[in-house]
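Folds abound. Consider this:
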Amino acid sequence: MRTLIIDIGGTGIKGIVFDAGASPVTERVRILTPRPATPAAVLAVVDQIIAQLGEFDRVSAGFPGVVVEGVTRTAPNLDPGWAGFPLAEALAKRTGRPARALNDAGLQGFGLIEGRGTEIVITLGTGMGFGLYIDSRYVPNIELAHHPFRKRKTYEERVADSVRKRIGTRRWNENVREVIGQIAPIFNYRRLYLGGGNAARVERDKLPESVIVADNVTGLRGGVRLWNAT
């Protein structure tokens, strides 16, 4: 059983195929997210990615917004046309394979968590993603990124990639640590995982022991585990 994982992001769209044991059997393909990032334009890029990856039996898609039963509800960093778009159904029709869609941080979390206690995933990329898990069960669509944090700015407005480019990576890292420090006494998590494209820019030696920095490919294993978890 091979699973095609599509990771739709505000900057790039990625694709990779994993086997039943959640090991990659292809290289990861990445194409820039089109502008405007309408459903039609994004799915056209997904078609290009699929053409490079070979055979697969099912599809898992991570999406940067609220997803309810395979239907996208919000897309803060894409296009308003995603409101109410049946992403899972559209992917199934295009590929002729069963498909599921989930919030991108939620999907990555299935590939990272240990399945014990309260675990949190934060993805750092164009914006900020958030996933909460309790004893391996995913609590869907908590958009903490858009909650007010401080100085009338949201969490995302403190750690988005545009902020990093404006203030520099060192000060951006300070913001990331502030966000982690704010979340800790609220959720009292056992583990917090940092993923997404900008996780590689995080100063690991300055993080608490309970925080783990993960690479993108490891997180994408969640596209396989999603089929067993829901």
Notes: Residues 107-219 form a domain with the Nucleotidyltransferase; domain 5 fold (CATH 3.30.420.40).
